[in-house]
Write the structure tokens for this entry.
Amino acid sequence: KYEDYHSVTYSQEAIDACSQAHGGVVLVDNGVFLINGITLKSNVELRLTASATLLGSTDYRKYPQDTKFAFKYVIRSLIYAQDCRHIAITGAGKIDGQGKLMKVDSASDRPDLIVLHDCTAVRIENVFITNSNMFGVFLLHCGQLRIDGVRLENLQCPNNDGFDIDGCHDVFISNCYINTVDDCLAFKSSSKQTPCSDIMVSNCILTSRCAAIRFGPDTLGNIEKEVVTNCIIRNTGLNGIKIEESLGAVMRNMTFSNIVMDNVKGPISIRLAGWSAGPYVQSWTFF
């Protein structure tokens, strides 16, 4: 697909230098740039112009690795950040993971495109994210997330989620178009110490061969204070909204309003299973 591209030999050095200079913008412009994986740093904005594509290497072993998250498996990703503040991925350019071309040793080695862990004050705006081998964007224990105007198409591999939001708080997701093999938006809490809360999803168009919006089943911590409004859900292989409480925590104070669904296999699915740890359902309101 990309026969003529530039190799970004010093991409990490540019990010490091920008961070050491008290922050700024690393600009990617006019070309297709092959990268082996980069780690963002605090106070750095990675900005892709409309004429720029970041193309992920098919050698996932060169990708940054998250060793802190051990709920299921070790995570690798093309773009990674941990314990950062004031970071951003912006612009009208493309991030292409070449997931279908990647050969992995085992299913647990499959990398995501973007993983941000324990980060605060994060912006992801206007970019086109596509072709991950696993999830598109995995956000772990982050706060003050602003995701706006993103186009995300993840249609090549099994388990191709869009955004996975795990144990995050103060999250706004708006004006996005998401088309995926697996869940478009997956909210979970894989640690009792990190509930997923204070989430607003608005003005999005969602299409999935699985569920458009899923809560759970990873619910060791609570999932609460979530609002989904003014969204269009179409052409889902399973449900428009899927709620699965199964690992002992509770889901509560969740409101869904002004949702239009077209050609969905089932509009709403609620499954209550696993531990009997308190009331399962509290204050869900559907309009």
About this structure: The chain has a mean pLDDT of 90. The longest helix spans residues 11-20. Helices lie at 11-20. The CA atoms of residues 30 and 44 lie 20 Å apart.
